[in-house]
Structures are given as C-alpha cells and as structure tokens.
Amino acid sequence: MRRKITSVLVGLGVLGGTLIGATGSAQGHGYADSAVSRQKLCATGTVQNCGQIQWEPESVEGLKGFPGGGPADGQICAGGNGRFSELDDPRGGAWPAASLASGQSHTFNWRIKVRHATADFRYYITKDGYDPAKPLTRADLEPQPFLTVPFGGARPPATVTHTGTLPRKSGRHLILGVWTIADTANAFYSCSDVRF
C-alpha cells in the first residue's frame, strides 16, 4: 500500500513539474479586476477557450515603453506574449463588457501577486469609432493616457486602487491598463472591455 501511495505522489510531482515547465514560471505578478479584465474573465471561467491564461491571469508581462515601445499592434492585450494570444482575439466583439458611466469617477483595482518596484500605472482608452471586432492597435487608442498614477519606484500593496474620472465616451470601448515596472525592462498589460 505504501509503495502505491509513494508512486502516486511521485507521479503527481512529475506531472506538476511538467506543467510548470510547459507553462513557464509558476510565479505570477498582477492584473486588473475592476474594470474586469479579459484575463480575469478567463480565470473565473466566465469566458471559455482561453488557453493558459485561465491559470495565470497575473502573468501578462511584456516589454515596457508603451506606446512608443512594448508589444506589437494586434498583440497588446497579451503583452506580446504568444502563450496568451487568446487575449488578443477580439472574439467578434463578443467579450463581456463592464458597464461604466461616461465622465464619472471610477475606481480601478489591481490584484498584485508579486510586488515589483513600480514606475507607474497608466490607463488608455480607445478612440470614438473603435471596432471591438478587430485586434487592438495603437491607432485604436487615444494617444495619451486618461489617468496616470506615478509610484516613484515604490512597491505596491497586494491590492492597488486608483480613482480617476472616466473620459466622456459612448458605446463600446476598451480600457488598456499598463503597470510599468521600475527596475526591469517589462510592464504588465490588462485589457478591459467596457460599455458606456
């Protein structure tokens, strides 16, 4: 009996190691959950067929420097990370959209799993006429963030909230949150589909 239990435990350990090796780092970082992000919708099972992001919603990490640098157009929501390309799939414009009030105050919320030294958090929104049935590009976004929260290299707490005034918009849009890390070449990206 003891041999069978040991064999099962060893097998589970090998399987777990294989899964970690196949998906990269098991360590996560952070994501937005208000307005609800695509990665959270996948992690909670609200949206199906999400691939690996359903197990790693906090791992959408890519090069920083957005919008001048960072992920390529069409790969922004996944941070340029091919493992999470399902986040860049517009799904025909059918991602669930959070209802927001145009021009009103909104509190954005991030869940932080690894507290990196932080340069800032920035929030961009799509231009009027945005087509949610196409992958996100820089040309779809207003050129300047509507909210920037500087951190000066400080490490954020496990839950970070930022309150700001939403732009005056109507209809369906996308909010891109960018958490820029101070002491690495990377940032974390989070796309939230919204309706005003």
Automatic annotation (TrEMBL):
Molecular function GO labels: monooxygenase activity
Highest taxon, organism lineage: Bacteria
Sorted UniProt keywords: Monooxygenase, Oxidoreductase, Signal
Residue ranges occupied by any Chitin-binding type-4 domain in the UniProt entry: 29-194
Alphabetized InterPro entries for the sequence: Cellulose/chitin-bd_N, GlcNAc_Chitin_IntDeg, Ig_E-set
Pfam family of the protein (one): LPMO_10
SUPFAM superfamilies: E set domains
CDD domains assigned to the protein according to its UniProt record, in alphabetical order: LPMO_AA10
UniProt protein name: Lytic polysaccharide monooxygenase
Gene source species: Streptomyces jumonjinensis
